[in-house]
Structures are given as structure tokens and as C-alpha cells.
Amino acid sequence: MRAAQHGAHRDLPHTTVWGYNGTWPGPTIEARRDRELKIEWRNRLPEKHFLPIDTTIHGSEGSLPQGRAVPHVHGAQVLPESDGYPDAWFTARGEQGPLFRSNLYRYTNEQAAATLWYHDHCIGITRLNIYAGLAGFYIVRDAEEDALGLPSGPFEIPLMLQDRLFNADGSLLYPRAINGTHPVWIQEFFGDTICVNGKAAPYLEVEPRRYRFRILNGSNARFYQLRLHRSDANGHVMNKRIDVPVFQQIGTDSGLLPAPLALRYLLIAPGERFDIVIDFSSFAGQSFTLNNSAPAPYTMGGEFVPTDVMLFRVNRAVTGKETSDVPRVLTGFEPMAATAAVRERLLPLTEIERTADGYVVTSLLGNARWHDPITEDPKAGSTEIWSFLNTTADMHPIHVHLVRFQVLNRQPFDVELYLKSGELQFLGEPIPAEPNERPAWKDTVKAYPGHVTRVIQEFELPSGAQASKDDEGYLYVWHCHILEHEDNEMMRPYRVIP
Q1: How many domains are there within the chain?
Q2: Which of 241, 274, 331, 385 is buried most deeply by CB count within 10 Å?
């Protein structure tokens, strides 16, 4: 992890970033299932941060070193000492957080092929470190996926979507609060420029054939609703007819879907990954823009919405025969039954707001702060339903470390009654999960405002857990993946009890 200079666009001067190996995004790491990988993460960051730090946020006090960091592979099923616990940070000068154990991490990769990603997870400044550039792809591959014949090699491309603000001199701008509830912290960050793999307004020249795109929303707070539109070669939308390539979604956060799903648009929250195939074979000589239309914040709106994501030009000659395929069956899948759960936990998502104008002071999970006693303590190997009661006007993407889960359903409830009395009164029948959520393995879920969102998960520890056993169990976290929320108390530790 080190500082470097990065060019986001040919018309912008280079800007300082913090990157893994000095690049934004960091190198794509490829792993094989059941083949252990060890990574030594080295901090070579400057002592002083180049983005504004709010020392009133828990975990970001002025007494702490600014150049601290700790990597987390999002979606990896690993032991706590390799998970990137927020208090396990370390610096270039050898300073360490209270739960630091080692900077040599062990990834056993005992999980199906999937698009994971790695990013900083330092308590109190995660939003700043990821914004600075500390994020990259981590792809797990296996023989089952290899045998499907999906587009590969130069026809398989990861796309990391992140919105940014740039100063006139090309430098990254992260704004300070104006009359906020904290001197620096802002409620949510929204940039006016969408970057893909660290580039603003990018284009991709493709052949008229199938391409696989692993799409990651690596933004701080922005949701994306993505659609393809016909355009000219410069990216100007010509019309919004539907005679454009469809998205064939083949996978999500934690692996392949059982079967491909044809979609015209994709709604992707921060932290989510969508694995798609686009077939350009019938569109030689044409161009398409990938556009965004999601309001910000989602679903309230009110902030600027940049529409241009990237441009596809189908203008390259075909190199070799098309041999890729998208089979009608991708993988076996067994839905988890709600009856398998030994417990359901009701977990409210709440906000403390300033009375005068509703500006958020802090957001909470389970009505508790980060340092409050742990209340979620599942037994190793047990199956539980976690029901997220969203009492706020925001949609919150909730991520649970260690596990993968299945989305059961969502159900509207009387928020006002619940906040006043704690009584949970439903206002309608359960709503089935979205088609690309169930059947599917996920690790990040959209918790809709005014709804209970239910997920079911087995708390299975990875191999080697016995060697690390202690009296207190195995420590992980769950949190909102809107980074400004995560940094201001919307994150909680939990323990898996052996």
C-alpha cells in the first residue's frame, strides 16, 4: 500500500492516490479453489493523509496515526486474523491497532468460484482509504466454472465502478461538511464523475462476440441502475429503444447463479458484484453507452446523478472462432429452508438525526454502537435468519463477514409504531426476493426502507479454526456498506462461538 500518481483522464493532470502496489484499482488477484494463498500486506503509506480526517468519529481520534490501513478480502471465508478486522490496522512505522496479529494473511479459498474484492477496512477512515484508491479484485476460480466454456481471457473483463470529484488541477476532492453534525464528516459521498477501473469517461472497443464482465460497485454510497442505450461512436445517446444487447446475469456476490437470467437493467448497491455476459455478435459497427439512472441517495434522490458510465464500440475485427457459451444450467443450487434456522434475530437499522433539519448524527445497527457489548453470537455450524428492520429513509446495503447467505424475502412494516413502542406490525405480505437474489448466494443485501429484509446463513468456520480457538470465540463484523455510515457507527462486531 503506497502513494502514487494516477491519470484518471487524458484531459486531467495526474493526481495522488493510495493504491495496492501503487495502482488504482490494485492488481487483480486470481486464486484457485482449495489452493491456499498467503499474502503479505505491506504498509508504505505516508504518515499524513491527503484527504480530510474527522477526529470526532470513533476510531479516528487525533491521537491515532493517519497512515494506518488494514486489508479485507470482501466475501472471503477466512479466520479472523486474516479477515482485516477494523481494529487490526498497522502503519509504515510499525504502529499497530489493538487487534493486530500479523500482516501475513492466509486465504484457504475453500469456496466456489466467485468475484470477490479487496479493500481497506480501517475503523473510522475506511471511506477515505477506499476513496484514495485502496481497492482491487480478488477472483476465485474452480474446475466447475472452467468447464462451462464462458467467455475468458481477453473476453473476460472486471469493471470496478466508483464515482469521484476532481479539483481543477486533477486532484481528488473529498468534501468537508458544511454545517454538519460533525466538523468534517458528510452523511454520504456522491461524485459528479463515474470512474471505471480508475478511468473517467472510458470506452472499450470490442469484437462482435460474447464478453464476460464482472461488475463491482466500489463506490462509497452511490447505487447504480445500469442500462445499455444505442449511441454514436462518441457516446451520445441516439435513442432508448430496447433493440440493444441484453445483460445475461450469470453470477452474483458469492458465485454463479443456477441458470442465466436475462435482464434489461441492473440495480447494484455498494459492495455488490454482478457477473454478466453481453453478446455483441449481432451488433457489429454499432456503439452503446452504459448509463446510470439511480437517484442519489437511493431511493430518496436530491443529489447529482451522473449518467455516463462507459462506452462500448463494436468495431474490432473478430479474432478467431467464437467458442464461448452460456449454458442453460450453470451450477447446482439448493435453497435453504427457513425451517433450518435455529434462531431469527431482529436487527433494527436506525439513525439519530438532528432535530432542526434531519441531518444525521450517527447511524446504528441493533441500536448499539461499535464499542457496546456484542449481542450477535451464533454457534459455529448453526443456521440463523437475520432480519434487518430498516427504519430509515435510506436503502442500506448490509454485508456480513465470513458467511454467504440467501435472501428469503422482504416485508413492509409500520416504522412509526416500531420506533415508538418496539412493536413490529406488518403492513403487507412477504415480498419474494428479486430474481437475481434467490436462488443466489450473496454476501451483501439491499435493505429497503420501511421493510424487513430476511437472510438465512450458516456460520461455518473455515479450516484451521480449531488451531485459533480461544475462550471468546471468533470475532467478525457486519455493517452497512455505505462507507460514510460504516465509519460512523453503522458497524457491529459479532462472535462465532465454537
Answers
A1: 3
A2: 274
**Is residue 7 over pLDDT 80?**
yes
Do 124 and 195 belong to one domain? no
**Is residue 157 located within the same domain as residue 138?**
no
Q: CATH code at 224?
A: 2.60.40.420
Over residues 75-93, the mean pLDDT reads: 98
pLDDT tens figures, 154-164: 999 999 999 99
Element housing 261 (H / E):
strand 255-263
Domain coverage including residue 345: 338-496
Report whether 6 contacts 19 (CB < 8 A). yes
Residue 330 lies in a domain: no
Q: What is the pLDDT averaged over residues 449-454?
A: 98
pLDDT for the residue 470: 52
DSSP 106-143: EE---S-SEEEEEEE--TTTHHHHHHHT-EEEEEEE-H
**Whole-number Cα distances in Å, 312 to 231, 279, 316:** 9, 12, 11
Beta pairing, strands 451-458 & 383-390: antiparallel
**Is 321 within a domain?**
no
